[in-house]
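Quick illustration, no need to memorize.
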Amino acid sequence: MPEAPEVDALAGFLRERLIGHEVTDVDLVEGRALKTRGRPLDGLVGRAVTGVTRYGKHIDLDLDGVHLGIGFGRAGWATWDEDSAQTDGADGRGALPQAAVIARITLAHGILGLTDAGDWLSMQLHVVDAPEEVPSVAKLGPDAADPSYSREMLAAALGRRRKQLKALLQEQETLAGIGNAYSDEILFAARLSPTAHAAALSVDDITRLHHTLHDTLTSAVVARRDVPIAEQKAAKVAAMRVHGRTGEPCPECGGVIEDIPGTKGGGQWCPSCQTLPAGA
């Protein structure tokens, strides 16, 4: 799943290439992805891109007042092809041959392809008049990758909730932009158990969690910034210290990385390093 650092890099990539250019054609390959049936993609034709903005794990394309909201879901992504009329080839820059093409947006100088590599369709497209008309964007909490996200804001979000930390970090209404992978990495860096409840955290625990959240996401945003969009997934996987590394040695203590109980292999942690808060 693309998370804030990868989507931020994609937004920057698209900003450089799309702003100021007019859409000349659209092709909705998978009709189920378009959630605004009364607003077809055809309404984008003839409009120039005037802005590209990231909202959590979503991207908004502003086409002179008409917005295309792109929700990537579990396996959505984008390609950019300046040489061919097809975005599902392998041109080495943006193509993902294994991913199903959901839609194509053609401009005079290239084609933006929207793809989904999942076993089930997770990408969503909305044609709206404002970004917040997309339901999943409207309910987003503060952006976790925003440098202004403070310790006090995190403490308020945690409150005294009896909810496990891993699930809470992925709750987009509480904190936008974090998914399965970075929640594992943040909690590993904070040396906190993913199954600990927010209510059990001490003042020091919250301070440490805020520091590692900020450091992990900031570092990832910087690291992904100049990576070609076709290589973003591989770069993300390579950077993970515990996520996806079941059975490998912990990079800190040398213990064994294990699957988080109850995640069915979807999340990983180091039981030796990541302890429950005192009294939990």
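The chain has a mean pLDDT of 92.
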